Amino acid sequence: MALTAAASAREILVRLHDVMAARTSAQAKLNAVVDIIGEALESEVCSIYLLREGVLELFATRGLDAAAVHVTKLAPGEGLVGTIAGNVETLNLDEAASHPDFAYRPETGEERFHSFAGVPIIRRERAVGVLAVQHVEPRRYDDVEIEALQTVAMVLSELIANAGLIDMTGGGTTRPQSTATARISGFKLVDGMGAGVAVFHQPRIVIEHTVAEDIEEERRRVYSAFDKMRDQIERMAAQAEFGVGGEHDEVLETYKMFAYDEGWSRRINEAIDSGLTAEAAIERVQQRTRMRMREIDDPLLRDRMHDLEDLSNRLLRIVSGRLGTAAQMGLREDSILLARNLGPAELLEYDRRRLKGVVLEEGSLTAHVTIVARAMGVPVLGRARDLRRLVAEGDKLLLDVTAESLIVRPSTAMEEAFEAKLALGQKRRAAFAALRDQPPVTKDGHRVTVMMNAGLRDDVAALDLSGADGIGLFRTEFQFLVSATLPQRERQQRLYRDVLDAAADKPVTFRTVDIGGDKALPYLNHDEMGEEENPAMGWRALRLALEREGLMKAQARALIEAAAGRQLNVMFPMVSEPWEFDEAKALFEAQREWLAGRNRKMPHEIRYGAMLEVPALAEVLDQLLPRLDFLSVGTNDLTQFLFAADRAHPKLALRYDWLSPSILRFLARVAAPAQALGKPLAVCGEMGGRPLEAMALIGLGIDRISITPAAVGPIKAMVRSLDRAAIMAQMQEWLAAPPSRDLRGVLEEWARAHGVVLD
Ligand code: PEP
Ligand code: MG
What we know:
- The protein is an alpha/beta fold.
- The chain folds into three domains: 6-162, GAF domain (Beta-Lactamase, 2-Layer Sandwich), CATH 3.30.450.40; 212-324, PtsI, HPr-binding domain (Enzyme I, Chain A, domain 2, Orthogonal Bundle), CATH 1.10.274.10; 435-753, TIM Barrel.
- It has an eight-stranded mixed β-sheet with strand order 7-14-13-9-10-11-12-8. An eight-stranded parallel β-sheet has the order 21-20-19-18-17-16-15-22. Strands 3-2-1-6-5-4 form a six-stranded antiparallel β-sheet, with helices on both faces.
- β1 (45-52) and β2 form a beta hairpin.
- α6 (246-259) crosses α9.
- Bound molecules: phosphoenolpyruvate and magnesium ion.
- Magnesium ion (MG) binds next to α23.
- Phosphoenolpyruvate binds next to β16 and α23.
């Protein structure tokens, strides 16, 4: 056997290097390459097929009939060569003809050859050609030979790209023509539509040079890149750079495992020994791992593979000195951002005007990036598979989260249909915007209060645009989530003051931080938090805040000082028993006294409220209500606890209905004592933002809602078409004796019959 060690691969690469540097035509170079490989592997045949116009064409051969060159053509998926390209996989066969995909081509004269080994030539993760060897004698090729072929294939990829032998904009065989359309489905995280070009958050490095000039220098570059990468990971673990959230810890652990994995660095070193540049060696090892993993059908391992891909890409970026994410380079046109996952801070780095959508391979409804994207008004599709394989940087994309789909390289007809749908949505939004200055008064003259939810400084602009009555829920934890470190009191105070200034005379209700549980902040002590099996029911929100007094005190002072001379409305999340409300209020009052003692200017009034999200609280409203100024029902959390159904679980998302007798009866029971005591009662969960649900709430006598800004227009339109007395009378009947059919259908029918505008 001619090849026994990396040194032999190196000899091939040295010879290839000379070929590549020679001033000859691309065809002459390919002819030289097949000779070099053929000699090195002592194979009777060595051939190169390249993808041209969607088919694999024989470009060079040693051993097959010369007349077959540029004549033999195979479609992707056809014959052994087409199978290798189609599946981007290596074949190693001692008897080629017995493979089910074998296709005999008489012009080649290949019937004499029994054994066959072929590897894909890969560019940007797609097969753009195939390198194959054949022997007369039936034999399997050993690993060293296969690896040598794969290494050569990498070099060939550089050669053919530089020579312009393949049409790179047309890509590889996973999309035979540049116009081939793909559709990727996903899961709705933030509704909406957007069109733009594909931008990967972490741009992939395209390797320019594969053959090393100086092996020692390449080795040094890889060592130093490994050092830097390990440093980065250590830093990520120590700080918040990595974003926030429980699942990240796991990823970080896996990162660490790989970053220190001896096997990985050794394999990269071996690839350098064989004569590759540092970049090519990293990519070479990654390709090999990809191929191996593809044969293993284990979702857990596949996830790990994902992590290794991330890390390998990170190493590549370090070694090639191209470090920035797409955010640092700036979006040049309307763009759809693609990422495996993002932290909220990473998302906020993008130019909001050009960011038309986000597509994540992971993502969940309660992930912070989702909450922030919703606040930014950027549609997000989650759980989208195969992004790297199906989408290339710069591809035209149509994101329709409403239809849970991403269309890649759409046809003109698709673009037109998309534009029409988009325009329809815009027309509807414009109609709602016209309602901005119209008050939400029911047909029978009752004024409903329609406020909006916010959390970022910029959200406040929506107050004016939507004509909402105020901010009914300001999620103060957003500032904590988008910061790398705990926001200091001054920073908090500045934000609160800006929000109050912008809201002018409209009221704002600040919710104290709802962190902990799945909204873990990396800069809070994890050991203290411990592992939580049920984070939604864990050490979160007020439970955490009451224990971390320093945090709550700082927030109380920031809020009180920001509201100097104005009214301050504060509410506490996840109150489960009245004493928790008392303690939180006492903490605020103590801060008020402390500040007053120092002659600071005070708010002229502080009003305290509780969020009703924990069902148990409803049983003690007689005790709680007299102590507070207002109550706000968080139906997002409340329904997950009432139905014992995780609010982030996609399989349960449609299982239970907000318009079920159990939820509505529960809300009616909460509303009655609040109304009797004259305590303002609002609903600030997503439920209130849907016209039919809001109609039902008004039917229960709940006439304050706080909703996402985009819903203000549709809700106003509904309110203005509704007869409140009629729906209240009807709701009483339905709640006393729920209809046998589903209540949603019955409500819809009623709305239609009574001319209520529902969209
Ligand atoms: C809720 O739970 O309904 C709510 C408004 O709070 P959040 O969605 O922030 O948990
Ligand atoms: Mg909540």
